[in-house]
Amino acid sequence: MTTTIQPEEIMARAKDVFKQVRDWRRTIHAHPEISFTEVQTARLVQSVLNDLGVEAETAVARTGVVGRIEGGGGPTVGLRADMDALPILEENGFEFDSQRSGLMHACGHDAHTAILMGAATLLKGFADEGRLPGNVRLLFQPSEEARDENGMSGAAMMIQEGALKDVDAVFGLHVDTKTEVGKVATRAGTLMAAGDTFDLTIKGFGGHGARPHLANDPILIASQVVQAINNIISRRIDPLAPGVISVCTFHAGTARNVIPETVEIGGTIRSMTQDIREQLYVELERACSIAESLGGSYKLEIQKGLPPTVCDPEATAVAFDALNPLLGTDKTFEMDPMMASEDFSYMLKEAPGAFLRLGVKNPEWDREYPVHTSTFRIDEEALLVGVASLTAVALKWMADQS
C-alpha cells in the first residue's frame, strides 16, 4: 500500500546518502570516459544497482545501463543521466582531478550520474517499503556530447534499442553554472534550441598576391558571404522568433603572398521552432549563393543535429508542484529559453516530461566556472539538491497519475 511521502522525508533521506553520492561523483570525475567508451562508469553504475537489488540491463546503446524499480503497479516514470566526459585537459588542482590526461568531466555528467544513483537509492527504499506509487526506469545514457558513425547520439540509440518502451513520462536534469546552489529551474514549452551545423566551401581561382586582378579571390568572396550570413537574423527572420547562425571556422591559404583557390567555412545554426529552423536553411543557402554572383562557386552542406528540447506543460507543472514544497518557492523559478542544445530532446519526443536546470554555483565564488572549460567546477551541495529533486518529481508524477 502506497502512502504520501512528504518533502521533509525525501530531503532527510537525501542527506543520508549525500556523502556516498559525493564519493561516486568524485570517483567518476577522476576517471572520465568520452562518448561511447563509458565502460568503467557503467560498471560502477551496474555495481551500485546490483547492491540495491535493482534489475540492471547493460550494454544498452553500447555502454548504457537501464535499471528498473518495480512498485505496486501503476505508471512508469523514466529518469535520465548522461555519463560521458569531454576531451579537455583539466586545470583545477582538486584531489579528485582527472587522472586521464586530456579528458575531463567538464559538463557535469559525473554529477548527473551520481545524482541518479542517489535517487535510485531513495526510490528503491520506498519500493521495498511498499510506498512507491508506480515504476521507475533508470536511464544511464552514454554519449550526449557526440554522435556515432551513423550520426546517432546516446539518447537516440537508447530509444532505438527500446529503453523507453512503456515509459509514460521522463525527467532529467543538468547542472547550471549561472544559478546558485539550492535553486532549480525549468520552463514549459521550448527550453533549449535545435542545434545544426554547416560546412561551406567557396571556390574562386588563385594567383599571386601581387597580381590580384588576375585571380578571383575566394577570401574576398567569402567575406561577402559571411556578411550576408550575419544579416540573416537581423533582416530575414521575424525579430520575435529566436534564431542564431554563427560562423565559427574560416580556413584559407598557406602562404602570405598567394591567393588561394578555396575557402572552407564552418558554423552552427540554432532555432527554437521547426518553422524557423527550415527558414534558416533556406536563407543560408541564399546567402551562400552570393558567391556565384561574384564569379565563384560554392558547396553548402547542412548537418541536421538535435531537435529543440520541449518540456510538456503538464509534466512541468507537476515538477514545480514537487519542487516548491521541497526547496521553497524562492528556490524554484521559470527560466528563459537557452540557445544551447541537448539530446534529452529525443526522449522528450518519446514521452512527456521536463528537463531541470540544477544550480551549482557557490554564491561566494568571485566568478562563474562555465561548462566545457578546463576549470569547470560545481558546489557539491548541489548533489543533495539534485537527488532530492529527481526523487520528489518522480514520486509526485507517479502519485498524480495513479
Structure description:
The model has no long low-confidence stretch (mean pLDDT 97). The protein is α/β, with parallel strands linked by helices and 402 residues long. α1 (7-30) packs across α3 (109-128) and α8 (313-327) packs across α10 (381-401). It contains ten helices and 16 strands. The chain is elongated and about 85 Å long. The protein folds into two domains: 7-193 and 308-401, Aminopeptidase, CATH 3.40.630; 199-306, 2-Layer Sandwich (Alpha-Beta Plaits). A hairpin with a 3-residue loop joins β1 and β2 (64-69).
Summarize the helices and strands and which ones pair or pack.
Layout: H1 7-30, H2 39-52, E1 55-60, E2 64-69, E3 76-82, H3 109-128, E4 135-141, H4 154-160, E5 169-180, E6 184-186, E7 189-192, E8 194-203, E9 207-208, H5 218-235, E10 243-252, E11 258-259, E12 262-271, H6 274-288, H7 290-293, E13 297-306, E14 309-311, H8 313-327, E15 332-334, H9 344-350, E16 353-361, H10 381-401
Parallel strand pairs: 3-4, 3-5, 5-16, 6-15
Antiparallel strand pairs: 1-2, 2-4, 6-16, 7-14, 8-12, 8-13, 9-11, 10-12
Helix pairs in contact: 1-3, 1-10, 2-3, 3-10, 5-6, 8-10
Shape: elongated
* Averaged pLDDT: 97
Strand content: 25-35%
- CATH uppermost class of the largest domain: Alpha Beta
Distance between the first and last residues' Cα: 12 Å
Helix content range: 25-40%
Radius of gyration based on Cα positions: 24 Å
Would you list the SSEs in sequence order as H and E?
HHEEEHEHEEEEEHEEEHHEEHEHEH
In DSSP terms, counting alpha (H) and pi (I) runs of 4 or more, how many helices?
A: 10
Assigned CATH architecture of the largest domain: 3-Layer(aba) Sandwich
CATH superfamily of the largest domain: Zn peptidases
**How many structural domains in the coordinates?**
2
Q: Strands across the major sheet, in which order?
A: 1-2-4-3-5-16-6-15
What is the name of the CATH topology of the largest domain?
A: Aminopeptidase
Sheet with most strands: 8 strands, mixed
